[in-house]
Amino acid sequence: MTNLTETSQAVKGARVLQAHFSEGKPTPVTIYLKADKPLTNEKSLQSLDELTTKLQHTAGVSDVYSLTQPGACQLKSTTLPISWNPSA
Q: pTM for this one?
């Protein structure tokens, strides 16, 4: 964090984590994505699935779950219909 200023949100957040967790202790991190458009089309779901897979192969990451991989394993494309609309 040497290239960040002491007032940046990342540094402030890291200080809060350091105050509550000992160094080296694994802490779960939840990442939420905000989309301008529904993620219910095949292209969006494929992008989300690719991001999930990349995160799963990141050093130090043990588990990654997403809409396309809710059990940390890939769903079949027929499991989630393209017309699926959670707000309907």
A: 0.54
Residue 87 carries which side chain, given as an amino acid letter? Answer: S
Residues 6+ apart with CB under 8 A from 56: 63, 64, 69, 72
| CB crowding 61-76: b at 16 or more within 10 Å, else e | eeebebbbbeeeeeee
Q: Which two tokens stand for residue 68?
A: 């396309």
The four Cα atoms 48, 35, 88, 30 give a dihedral, to 10 degrees, of 60
* Measured distance CA(84)–CA(13) in Å, rounded: 36
Asked whether the predicted pLDDT for residue 29 surpasses 80, the reply is: no
